[in-house]
Amino acid sequence: MGGQSEEIEYLKSLVSQLNVKISALEAQPKPPKSPARQLRTILMGPPGAGKGTQAPRIRDEFCVCHLATGDMLRDQIKAQTPLGMEAKKIIDAGGLVSDDIMVGMIKNQIENNAECKNGFVLDGFPRTIPQAQKLDGMLSSRGEKLDSVVQLLIDDQLLISRITGRLIHTPSGRTYHKLFSPPKKPGLDDVTGEPLTQRSDDNVETLRKRLTTFHSQTGPVAEYYKSKGLWHGIDAAQSPSVVWDNLRAVFVGKK
What we know:
two-stranded antiparallel sheet, 7 strands, globular, alpha/beta, Rossmann fold
């Protein structure tokens, strides 16, 4: 009996020690996620296809930076730089900004933005084959290359329905939709109660011009990446969660 009691006490002591260790481990801050490998990808798609929804998820899941060239340009427009003013004229007219300066901006981000150390998801560039070639050249000079190019595919008419109802809270970047995701109070941000706005290029006529330009310019870019075996097409008319599952399958090599 004495030996059994000692064994029970020993086991209790061992369990107690294990519980202390488990509690200590659980209390430690969790290490940041780190990807199994670097990811350098391009997310293609017309305005309203869902790039703004999916790119941040790619950024967070794979610990890479999100380089949205549209945001870079809008920052220039807000600052009223010469490039920004020129870009605004083109965007308001329904065109797509094509500028060699973008490659330099992208290179600067890759080299100086700590979030880019594990790679990047490039959103909104390249839009022409010469731009794609310049991007390839810049990456090659760094001893790097793209892993994949993913294009979100969706019908133009569905896109127009999505975009013309889009409402934006400019200070925060929060977005709503008149039909699909309306604010609690019409025209007002849910958090601040401040007025929501529509971008000046979010009207049907301008959108049709933008889509025509997008298809004529970026169609050849898709073919360029198809020829390199990098291109993947994703049906963007599906729910965002299904689109994400398909995107993730590309990046982890299951698609």
